[in-house]
Amino acid sequence: MNYPSHTAAARGLASCHLCGKVSPLEEERCPRCDSALHLRKPHSVSRTWSFLIAGIAFYFPANLLPIMTVGGWGTPEQGDTILSGVVTFWRSGSYPVAIVIFTASVLIPILKFAALIWLCLAAQGRVNASPIALSRIYHITEIVGRWSMVDVFVVAILVCLVQLGALMTITAGPAALSFALSVIFTMFAAMSFDPRLLWDRQNPTHRPS
Description:
Layout: E1 13-15, E2 22-24, H1 44-64, E3 68-72, E4 75-80, H2 82-91, H3 95-123, H4 131-145, H5 150-161, E5 168-172, H6 174-192, H7 196-200
Antiparallel strand pairs: 1-2, 3-4, 3-5
């Protein structure tokens, strides 16, 4: 694997993925935290694709199955999906709650999937884009991705607070687990991706792993 002569990688220097200390690659382990040194995350793109596909696969049942089931005295239990819950909150006048859930549970995951797909394609040389813009997209994806769990937190809070015995019960549906797994896998995908591969594409002799 060849790197441009002006880069640290071409001079045999590697940045520790844990503490960030730059050390000669020949040392094999970081002198500060004793972590293994490598120029780039091993099999970064392939691992990102694997986690991303798993996250997308779990996202479909997360939106098709009930995320919570509400039952009350004298009324049958009713299951709500994420989108039907958004509609229910909107019709009841809880506009801020509906907007937050829609943004965190529908809009952000879809944008994160699209961003990670674009980043992987760019790292493989299938998309031509500015490395600066792509790096910014990657860092934004890392920051906003964690807020996708807010829908699961809302369900958990409702389950804990709205347990009124025979009057009303709220239980988490199967979609809650699927959604949590989808978020976790996409977080792993973002963590597995090495943004330095975007800059390596500036060297035509480089081939990412």
